Amino acid sequence: MASTQIGLVGLGKMGGNMRERLRNAGLTVVGYDRNPEVSDVPSLVDLVDRLDGPRAVWVMVPAGGATQHVIDQLATLLKPGDLVIDGGNSRWTDDEKHAKQLHARGIGFVDAGVSGGVWGLKNGYALMVGGDKEHVDRLKPVFDALKPEGPYGYVHAGKVGAGHFAKMVHNGIEYAMMQAYAEGWELLEKVDSVDNVREVFRSWQEGTVIRSWLLDLAVNALDDDEHLEKLRGFAEDSGEGRWTVEAAIDNAVPLPAITASLFARFASRQDDSPQMKMVAALRNQFGGHAVESKKG
């Protein structure tokens, strides 16, 4: 039976927007968050009680300990035949552990890599999903509501763990693309002959092979702060870049560009890197990630 109602745990920047997009598509969503101002119910117990069986609960909390804590609670609250979906940025090896833990209680598990950031409410979310076909098929109304309009933006990537593995590789590629734009921007800013770097970037938005949404966001960032003088050249890494490089080592796959882009972020923590100003600006533009301002 297809799921037209869903529980959603975690109503932060992405989870809150996902709840709204699902409701706009006509689905029933019961959301729980530790912040009572945004939560629909006072507790996870109440969320489960509000859902009809067989239940489906989407977990949208930070990877690691927070996700494990919610999985542990749901394992005791849900019934055989219910489903848990992890839509956070969990490592794919954790998915395998969570699936085994829930399977022991007759509860299904699906992992969903989600991309779209703060723009997902309007544009839809790219979804990379892993799990058994019967579980994924049950969630089709949910995936259809979240994905962008049109034929693309959703894939059943494979078995449990495949969704987050695909999202991890996506983020590794994202690291390298941002680094390339950042290096090009720094070089243009450095030479005396180019005196309108922002408009050079803007000129690339049409008719060039490097046009992309990231390029559009770079122009947005330069419109806000033409020389990125307000930003400190410091960029965090959220984990997926490291995991991508580790997976490459485990599988003997050379990833020089992605690896170099990860190391460049490490270097940004030692100096006020001009390149990392652009990377920080891009992360803020597409994902609402925090930036560090210069102290002045």
From TrEMBL:
Its EC number is 1.1.1.343. It is an enzyme of class 1 (oxidoreductase). This is Phosphogluconate dehydrogenase (NAD(+)-dependent, decarboxylating). Keywords: Gluconate utilization, Oxidoreductase. Belongs to the HIBADH-related family. Belongs to the 6-phosphogluconate dehydrogenase family. It comes from the Bacteria. GO terms for molecular function: oxidoreductase activity. PANTHER family: 6-PHOSPHOGLUCONATE DEHYDROGENASE. NCBIfam families: gnd_rel, PRK09599.1. SMART domains: 6PGD.
